[in-house]
């Protein structure tokens, strides 16, 4: 590891983790606030730690001839061109376990915020109003939750939902065993029977626009859709049409087809939508854990060990669909 140059891109990291690591005598640590600084100031970088806002593509790789390792301190990895990295001999890793609790808690929060009309209540208070009759909400208890994707985050959501008294159903063609409190169903069967839909799948060819006009029509008129996965899983135009045509339906979204969401988006004008700016994994605990796992991965990799972070592409049955 002697003379290793690691560059951290962005500021959504636990700074303390990297300050401690930077004290290593054979370790040269730098932080770039923007991707444009990278090739100009750090052309000898051998390792990068990034988050989802940084795109790793062939153009960047061409400018970093000494690069050997990329670690994204996130669960998602669609911002990395894995094929280009493979051609250049650059190894890639991600930290999917670090964010699962934060994402699951945020999912439950969005459900409650929508059902209890929390944004409307806050706006009412800010306006100086006090009209509680307009804020009659619903409780989670007794509702049926349908989860698409019973992986790391989906399972954590299922545990919390069951503890809150929801009936939990799920659809996942790659899961053979589920917790005993989860009823596995076919896709259409689950969609037609749920009160709340929660999506937790990676972005693949199979999952892109799996929620569209046809599948939205299977939901009952007051169903709540929660998306904490990737924006492209939903055909956003079809969702907007669905919400406008069914004013009793609801959506709670943390991710969007294009980010940041345009101020011209029709979603901005709908009162049956709760939104947040892709902050599902933005907790101090998740950032600290992902930063530590990413840093450990770098040290282990260059010392010839087996990194604790997970290698990319993932060894999962859904990869390549």
What does the model show?
There is one protein chain. The chain has eleven helices and 13 strands. By secondary structure, it is of the alpha/beta class. The chain has two domains: 4-98 and 284-312, Rossmann fold (3-Layer(aba) Sandwich); 100-275, 3-Layer(aba) Sandwich (Rossmann fold), CATH 3.40.50. A seven-stranded parallel beta sheet has the order 8-7-6-9-10-11-12, with helices on both faces. A six-stranded mixed beta sheet has the order 2-1-3-4-5-13, with helices on both faces. α1 packs parallel to α11 and α5 (100-115) crosses α7 (152-163). The longest helix is centred in the C-terminal third of the chain and has 19 residues, at 284-302.
Give a brief outline of the structure:
By secondary structure, this protein is of the alpha/beta class. The protein has eleven helices and 13 strands.
